[in-house]
Design goal:
This protein is mainly α. It contains three helices and two strands; from the N terminus they run αββαα.
């Protein structure tokens, strides 16, 4: 859950009521995602998120799958870039 507090200050310096409220909120979200997997947050590690990967980030899982054929992660990233670019050339500009 991206809105959950990430620091000691975020949970009111350990305030029990704040921690309990956030724990219940996260439990509700997890139950909702279990019932409706299409709304689940994607938690895959991101390898690239800029340029052609802005709308659909390149995950390490996808990169590993593409690189398993050639063994070359750089070539796999280039292939993913070409697949995502509108013209298929791997460039954002004409």
């Amino acid at each position: 859950m991206s809105a959950a507090p990430q620091s000691w200050e975020g949970v009111g310096r350990g305030n029990r009521e704040t921690i309990t409220r956030w724990r219940r909120e996260m439990d509700r979200r997890q139950e909702f995602e279990t019932r409706h997997p299409e709304h689940a947050e994607h938690r895959d590690a991101i390898a690239a998120h800029e340029g052609v990967f802005e709308r659909k980030p390149l995950t390490y899982k996808e990169l590993a799958a593409r690189a398993s054929v050639s063994g070359d992660a750089t070539a796999a990233a280039g292939e993913a870039s070409r697949d995502r670019s509108p013209s298929g050339t791997g460039r954002n500009r004409p």
